[in-house]
Amino acid sequence: MANKNSVRKLPMNAVYKSTEQFKETVEIDLDVEGKEYRITLHPFFDPIKINKCIESLGKDLDAMKKNNYILPDNLFPQFLLTHILYEFSDFPPSKSKDVKVRVSYFKEVIKSPYYKECVNYLKQSEVAKVWERLMEVLQENENLDKLKNKLAEDLLTLDVQNPEIKKMIQAKTKRIPEA
């Protein structure tokens, strides 16, 4: 006779059912010069796509840095929301590989009424998940930088007798940038 209070194993169908919300969509109808267009948006953000969104954001920020373009702080919230729209809807992103063209397009997007209309459909709780994950990634990167610098310092304090290995350690630790 089985104990009624026994703990059971999690069934696979419960896992599948718990992720069904990520398949939901909302259709946003837009009137563009008298013609109807539709944007399909996923109102619930799955963790995999959140990571992809942050990766895309990071790549664009890195590309801007390499091209000596600094995104003004007051535009960062819209820049993040635009990346969220690109990842969780079929809102059209710039297809250009040139970061200056992408930034120019971004500035046009945030001025358009379509951007505002689509952003109004984003759930604050879902946007907060992206922000929280972004903060986690930044903290993880900071921790990795600290660890890398600590290891470099530790390597320099090792009493290595072999001159070739010593030279190699010194060369490698000089290449590690300051945090």
Low-confidence stretches: none
**Overall 3D geometry?**
flat
Q: How many domains is the backbone divided into?
A: 2
Order of helix and strand elements from N to C terminus:
HEEHHHHHH
- What does the largest sheet look like? 2 strands, antiparallel
Number of helices: 7
Commentary on this structure:
The chain has 179 residues and is mainly alpha-helical. The protein has two domains: 20-123, no CATH class; 143-179, no CATH class. Helix content is 59%, strand content 8%. It has seven helices and two strands, in the order αββαααααα. It has helices at 12-18, 47-66, 76-88, 99-111, 113-119, 124-157, 163-174, and strands spanning 26-32, 35-41. A two-stranded antiparallel ribbon has the order 1-2. Strand 1 (26-32) and strand 2 form a beta hairpin. Helix 2 crosses helix 3 (76-88), helix 2 crosses helix 6 (124-157) and helix 6 (124-157) packs antiparallel against helix 7 (163-174). The longest helix has 34 residues, at 124-157. The protein is flat, with a radius of gyration of 24 Å. The mean pLDDT is 88.
